[in-house]
Design brief:
Two copies of one chain form a homodimer.
Chain A (H helix, E strand, L loop, with lengths): L3 E7 L1 H4 L2 H12 L5 E5 L4 H9 L4 E3 L2 E3 L2 H25 L4 E4 L7 E5 L11 E6 L1 H9 L3 E4 L2 E3 L5 E3 L2 H12 L4 E7 L18 E3 H9 L7 H13 L4 E5 L11 E5 L1
Parallel strand pairs in A: 1-2, 1-11, 2-8, 5-8, 11-13, 12-14
Antiparallel strand pairs in A: 3-4, 6-7, 9-10, 13-14
């Protein structure tokens, strides 16, 4: 039987809240066994862009990544956030190693082709280097991945952190029994976005399709859930969406996805 | 006989000049055998600080690293510069991995005690984790180290890149035959700072002491040279200071240091 590996993704709202982040990192550090952390960006990159005198352009909630933006997100995601998390994990006796997709050629991507919109330096994942990541884990390290990839032509690319978590989980499934856990500011998938009591504890694909057809799923959740089902179809053993308290095994704080 | 390992440091002036950096990286990528790159910061952190509305305070050419400054240098050194170099090296078929001292607990430091001046988040190196760095090299990776360390109490620290190069070279000398090469904007140690023809090809410690006593060494070179002799005394096999062209084996572009 393969060894269990946890791939845990934290979103921007967790990162933007120092108390929530510290509490999450404590729980993360105390998890037994091999684990990978994937983190998003939070508001810092946008805030700093404003301070520097430019305003990131968003289309459908996605950043148009200009030359200025890729510098900014590289600084904030791969620099400030990634290294701050790694330093905190070291203090919690977790031997973390912060990685962008360029490091060790961990995640190769290609710049998104222009159809109607040119997203700029945005990368779609081509290949996750599972061998490299496994070697780090076998050296006793805990990879901490930020949402920056590369194209192997010398360019850094901005890639959605949810997609990174999903694709990393899929690639590692050839080598481990992988659980993929998305932590964000809600206790899971809700039928009423403002009502935590509307938590769906189990969401299979059929039920998901039904809810989607009734517009009962918040639109912001759809790409995340699509990433979840993609992972389940490609041999990720278990996929969960919940609040950071899911790591405390609080059963009111997550949704379990199934096919 | 131990395997040879090259530890090469590039300074800010190389980083600030894109053509010089690209040319250096090509030469670096073509070097055979295990190698480590250590890079400084350049002017970008100071430029960005000004854009963000604060002015870094310098005392004797050293940055007083406030809370704002440590965020800025983490973004620029560990984020932008480090990952840009790693992406370029990947494109040059060098499997680089960018590291701060927090990653894999590579470089443990302690915040500099306050005597007359509080340097803020500045770290003095306590221990280089040679075992970790060796494991990366043995996995076929080329470590690219930035000038950020950590204190294992959750804080990142700003550490002089010349000192990092020297201490990494010393620590790796237990495991490899180490050559330490400092690349900067001059062709080596000069007796006349503006005259490249005043290059000293060989500088032993006695000659260095003599030149220092006559004030014939530019003050900015003294900490760098002290790092060199420190390395030689602690079993680093060879120490060189020169322009990036030293990697092309241009014999007019470097000074060899000896005890």
């Amino acid at each position: 039987m393969a060894i269990e590996l946890k791939v845990i993704k934290i979103g921007g709202n967790v990162i933007d809240n120092p108390a929530m982040l510290d509490s999450f990192l404590k729980d993360f550090a105390s998890l037994e066994g091999p684990k990978i952390l994937v983190h998003g960006g939070g508001k810092k990159a946008t805030e700093l862009s404003h301070k520097m005198g430019f305003t990131p352009q968003m289309v459908d909630g996605r950043r148009i990544t200009t030359d200025q933006d890729i510098e900014m997100v590289t600084m904030v995601y791969a620099g400030l956030i990634n290294k701050s998390i790694v330093a905190k994990l070291q203090n919690l006796n977790t031997n973390a190693i912060g990685l962008s997709g360029a490091d060790g050629n961990a995640i190769l991507a290609s710049r998104r082709p222009v159809k109607t919109i040119d997203y700029g330096w945005v990368g779609d994942i081509e290949k996750v280097n599972a061998t490299f990541i496994k070697a780090q884990i076998e050296n006793g390290l805990c990879p901490v991945l930020c949402a920056i990839t590369h194209d192997n032509a010398g360019h850094l690319l901005n890639t959605n952190a949810d997609t990174i978590a999903s694709e990393v989980a899929v690639a590692m499934s050839d080598l481990y029994d992988v659980s993929l856990i998305y932590c964000f500011e809600k206790p899971g998938v809700l039928t009423e976005v403002e009502d935590d009591n509307s938590l769906i504890r189990n969401l299979n694909e059929e039920f998901y399709a039904e809810l989607k057809s009734k517009s009962a799923i918040h639109s912001g959740m759809i790409p995340k859930l699509d990433n979840c089902y993609n992972a389940l179809k490609k041999n990720v053993r278990k996929v969960i969406i919940g609040s950071p308290d899911v790591l405390k095994k609080d059963y009111n704080t997550f949704t379990t996805l199934s096919l």
